# Entry
Amino acid sequence: EKGGYEHFMLKEIFEQPKSIHDTMRGRLILNEGVIKMAGIWDHIEKFKNANRIIIIACGTSWHAGLIGEYLIEEYARVPVEVEYASEFRYRNPIITDKDVVIAISQSGETADTMAALKLAKEKGAFIYGICNVVDSSIARITDAGSYTHAGPEIGVASTKAFTAQLTILTLIAFKLGKHNGNLGNADFMSLIAELDAIPKKIEEVLSSTHELVQNIAKDFVGATNFLYLGRGYNYPAALEGALKLKEISYIHAEGYPAAEMKHGPIALIDENMPIVIIAPKKGHYDKIVSNVQEIKARKGKVIAVVNKGDTQVSAMADYVIEIPETSECFSPIVASVPLQLLAYYIAVYRGANVDQPRNLAKSVTVE
Ligand code: M6R
# Structure
């Protein structure tokens, strides 16, 4: 059932071209130039009249939510807040019937997310679910929703569910933006054409980086700490890369917005600190170049995720992982793939139980 792979996690990483494709199937209709999403369309007035969208989630799904904020604010120009479900539910949040609350949950059973949703519903908000498990508790209590059709995810570390969540959030942002006029037709058309080609790019990334990342992983089996840095859309991708590493390899890792480095974490940097830096060409590249200079001046070990043909960051980095160029909004999907592989192989070489890491459960049904 692992399809010839050693672990479910690796199988699920490799399934991503298909799972992303499945998530878009029947929704992204490229030749008609439309995005069809009944859950959104049937309630378009709710979205149109919303004062704001509040995204609630936990863990990896919360990271997807953060990227959702960048997407929806950029393309639909609707204000978005992203909250940990556990914080939201206990802080007496201001919620009105003009709010749309989107819950993101792979399992659809996460206790804190469920409780936060119930609270939002009581206060009159319109509640929308992005779940992977069909007919799960969250899917059932929401007013509407979109399933991520990623297929069953068995590995505790979420991989294909995350990229499927990003796919749904991208579709929602483009659909709302097109509808409310913030995203013009020409831009909409070129963005959806690019989205349609993402599974192909993921396939390319899997084949071009798999062996390379395995080799890089060998050099970091003994690491005790890691920093992950990114800017813009790739700041949440850095958080997600760090979470993946810590949950399956038990190496302490932190994700940071690259510019925050100089407000504290830079003190940690010496020749023993590996730093994964996500540096695609589109998205504050020049700023990232300076961040890498600052790290190298302190002898940090840089593992850089860059676009093919990159020169500046690559010249300074100790390890270079190339991914194809995309518009900025798609880069977290593409950049996450080698980071999943990196976490996976470091954990495997450390002899960890990657599919069932200690102390963790696939769905967290207690608060
Ligand atoms: O099922 P959910 O998406 O609600 O789960 C949320 C988190 O428990 C989950 O993403 C967790 O952080 C993963 N193990 C991360 O890989």
Summary: The chain has a mean pLDDT of 97. The two ends are 32 Å apart (CA to CA). The first strand starts at residue 28 and ends at 29.
